[in-house]
Amino acid sequence: PPTCGLEINFRRIKDNPKIKIYTLAEVQKVEGEPGNYNAQIKISPRYVNENCVACDECVKVCPVERKNDFNFGLDNSKTIYSPFEMSFPMKYVIDGATCKGAECAKCVDACKYSAIDLNMESKTIDLKVGAIVWATGWIPYDANKIDNLGFGKHQNIITNMILERYASPNGPTKGKIVRPSDGKAIESIAFVQCAGSRDENHLPYCSYICCMASLKHATYIREQYPDANIYIFYIDLRTPGLRYEKFYNKIKEDDKIFFIKGKVAEVSEDPATNNITVVAENAVTGEKIRQTVGMAVLATGMQPTNAISKLPAELNCNSDGFIINNFEKGGMFAAGCANKPADVVSSNQNATGMALKAIQTLVRR
Fold first, then answer.
1. pLDDT digits (tens, 9 = 90+) for 187-203
2. How far apart are CA 248 and CA 314, in angstroms?
3. How many CA atoms lie within 13 A of 340 on its CB side?
4. β-strand 332-334 against 132-134: which pairing, if any?
5. Right CATH number for 141-303 from 3.60.150.10, 3.50.50.60, 3.90.190.20, 3.50.4.10?
6. Which of 5, 7, 44, 156 has the most crowded Cβ, counting Cβ within 10 A?
């Protein structure tokens, strides 16, 4: 089935002989100038070679399990696994940290295509390139750092990204959204907006996508639980663009979705019932609100990966880690969320523009 257009782009990539993709690869060093860069790239071993046809026989015999990081550790996978349904290339990979190696080797015996190489090692290659587009994306802000919101302390307080995995057909619950502590149906749920965003102690900027993500998640809840009460606590609800505003107006017609304007001060759990209490001050009425719900979802903000792990090149970045494009100098360009908070549509548009900028660098040289 279609997956956000990925299947179309993957086919285009595979059919284009001028595109080379390196997976499990990390750019370690970049030297040079526009039109003439040398990029040093480390390629980590996947312990599975090009013979793999993803037949799944190795998975059946593998005796070791690992936390599934794609599902935020909510379930397990075997040590030899496919990262997710649309992973590219469609081949398995072995987690070297948990694999028992030669002392087990059951996967080697099970593979009739000789696709498993437990002795595979990392390698380093050098590429000569004329331009570089940094499309390094973003990671969710670590909700464990926001002490007053209770994430990591209470099972029924989750993040928006975790909810997304619960809602996914290939997620830990096969698409059924349930209360994490006991697997019960959702009778009431709270969404806490700007969890870490627009906060000088965490992320001082608006993360752009969180409001629309929570509105979308509210529709997930409504589809599965027609009678559930949904509470959305927000500082300002931001729905940029005509389509997003229409979506917001449509959701406001639901008489069991309640919008409360006010910054959440605390989220806690009742140990007897595992219910969640959200404390906030209503910015419109001035009253203090204590709302008890079955579970709470924190709309955590986005951080550029460069804020956590510095990129190996001389790049101009702002204080939040977003790369500032220098079009006058050219040569290296930041696309999508490496440059600023953005949704999928604007990221795609921005990346197209940066690819054109890269082409211009090559033409001018």
1. 999 999 999 999 999 99
2. 41
3. 10
4. parallel
5. 3.50.50.60
6. 156
